[in-house]
Known about the structure:
346 residues, alpha+beta, Glutamine Phosphoribosylpyrophosphate, subunit 1, domain 1, 8-stranded mixed β-sheet, 4-stranded antiparallel β-sheet, 12 strands, 23% strand, globular, binds aspartic acid
Amino acid sequence: MKFTWIVFLCFLSVNVLAQKTGRPVSRVVLVIHGGAGVLERGKLDPLREREALDALNRALDKGYSILDSGGSALDAVEQVVRVLEDDPSFNAGRGAVFTAEGRHELDASIMNGKTLAAGAVAGVTTIRNPISAARAVMEKSPHVMLAGRGAEEFARLQGLQQVDNAYFSVEDRRKSWQQQRRRDSLATLKDSSGKKTSSILAPGEKFGTVGAVALDANGNLAAATSTGGMSNKKFGRIGDSPLIGAGTYADNKTAAISCTGWGEYFIRLVIAKSVCDRMELGHESLEKAADILINEKLPALGGDGGLIAVDKDGNIAMPFSTPGMFRGYLRRDATGMQRQVAIYKE
Ligand code: ASP
């Protein structure tokens, strides 16, 4: 009898401890992307490939350390995206693409699936980590989106780190921008003879946006996306990444989504929220809803790209219609840990 009680008390205390610390068997899931685009096996510089995969692994490590110690999905996605923003391999933060004026304009958004609170910044040029500015907009202002100089002033008042715009420049990105400008001027020449239109929006040419979605030990979902947008963009062009519903969405009732690809099409299809709506109203699985948007609706309109998603039950989807997408995930539950990073179609 005494022994039974001891066993029962041990069981109880392990479980109380487990609940307090988020250990040992609570389920946590993290999915990340570093952009979808023309990434063909054998064509990417092996060194660049290695650097990008290492960065994805560092981002997963960062997110896991937060989720494993009982931290929130919201903290995990913000911190993971900061790691990717700081890494020059991706088109977000340092390493952002060049605008037509040879500068950098960054967009980011974040959403809390528990409360449906959301925050975003667009067209910012001096905030080192736009994702943290998006979170500050969500938590420290009555607004959802701030743009340009106002967003920068707000971030400065919040004590977020400011940098010179040149901080975001990396040589690789400058070279591809210069190549693109040459192609575009040729295209314009051809255009005047009626043969060809500009290549600025050629399918699959843009990649490197970053994003993260997570499910924490308390069952809360969150999503975050950050980008330099589209190379050679002008006139203050803004894509889907900072638009809640288009590039980012999270709702504890359904799923957390972060998108990457040809932003204009993601905006027109309101892709992130559409996945959640199909799940909630059409009772589709995450996999099916995500697949229909990325592999049917998006190409039907002429767009391309991909998304990462996790649903409230921990299911993962990572569909993309481009040749590749930098991506990774980890899932830890009672059965153990699964973890992977990848670029190409399997
Ligand atoms: N969706 C981003 C944009 O259109 C670009 C990308 O994901 O590569 O700004």
